[in-house]
Design brief:
It comes from Salinibacterium xinjiangense. This is ABC-type methionine transport system, ATPase component. GO terms for molecular function: ATP binding; ATP hydrolysis activity. The chain has eight helices and ten strands. The protein is an alpha/beta fold. The protein has a six-stranded mixed β-sheet, with helices on both faces. A four-stranded antiparallel β-sheet has the order 2-1-4-5, covered by helices on one side. The longest helix is centred in the last third of the chain and has 18 residues. The chain starts with a strand and ends with a helix. Bound molecules: adenosine-5'-diphosphate (2 copies).
Length: 231
């Protein structure tokens, strides 16, 4: 995924606020790229532009070279499937089991029941929850619920996985389990993972590269190995 000169302005004239100012970065397949910044930096706005819920004021979001920011409504819906999102709140349906939650996007797509069953079993296995398929969200830990959310995001076989504060609010142990799962997905599925967070310590655990966002600007970016070598 490439972000090119991405700019978002809210309001007009005197009241215009530049929330994102010409952001540029690229996340390669098989890479976890973190964007870290304090409250108000523009992280949620960036997340919404990346998962195509908000249109940038100018600039582009490209996946495999295809500009997704200029698409019409109908094409946009299909393009959204290329980007799986996980949020801080797991967003699971409380009256559906883990398996039923993961099956939901497949049902929307009209995948046959037999095929959906096969895919759900494979996805739950991938996130290490095969033995929790029949559990309801309240019967799962926070980390397990987040892993169900990841399985659901993967159901549509996205090329990009967007993590929007997905480990915020988790205890260190659950965070570590999500971190190792994301690294596995990066390596096994060759996903481009964009990891947005306010937690620098999690960035150091999970990311290959990081950009620091402040007041809508990237103020610093680099490979994690270089940051750790040269504090
Ligand atoms: P973060 O997620 O890093 O806390 P946000 O993207 O939520 O940052 O917000 C960045 C800035 O953009 C804030 O100053 C916020 O007030 C402003 N902002 C966010 N959404 C809107 C909106 N819909 N209209 C006007 N300003 C907004
Ligand atoms: P193959 O080409 O043999 O399917 P892959 O490594 O592409 O091998 O996929 C291995 C398994 O992972 C397949 O069952 C596929 O359905 C699944 N898979 C591949 N890419 C994704 C993805 N982006 N999201 C979810 N599942 C995926």
């Amino acid at each position: 995924i490439s972000i090119e000169q991405l700019t978002k302005v809210y309001g007009h004239g005197d009241k215009a606020t530049v929330v994102l100012d010409r952001l540029d970065f690229r996340v390669d397949a098989g890479e976890i790229f973190a964007v870290v910044g304090p409250s108000g930096a523009g992280k949620s706005t960036l997340a919404q532009c990346v998962n195509l819920l908000e249109r940038p004021t100018s600039g582009s979001v490209l996946v495999n070279g295809e500009n997704l920011s200029q698409l019409g409504e109908r094409q946009l819906r299909a393009a959204r499937r290329r980007i799986g999102t996980i949020f801080q709140s797991d967003g699971l349906y409380s009256r559906r089991t883990a398996a039923q939650n993961v099956a939901l996007p497949l049902e929307y797509l009209g995948v046959t029941t037999a095929e959906a069953k096969r895919r759900v079993a494979e996805l739950l296995d991938r996130v290490g929850l095969s033995d929790r398929a029949g559990h309801y969200p309240h019967q799962l830990s926070g980390g397990q619920r987040q892993r169900v959310g990841i399985a659901r995001a993967l159901a549509l076989r996205p090329q990009v996985l967007l993590s929007d504060e997905a480990t915020s609010g988790l205890d260190p142990e659950s965070t570590a389990s999500i971190v190792s799962l994301l690294k596995e997905l990066r390596d096994d599925l060759d996903l481009s993972i964009l990891f947005i967070t306010h937690e620098m310590d999690t960035v150091l655990q999970v990311a290959d590269a990081v950009a620091r966002l402040d007041h809508g600007h990237i103020v610093e970016s680099g490979r994690i190995v270089d940051l750790l070598r040269d504090p």
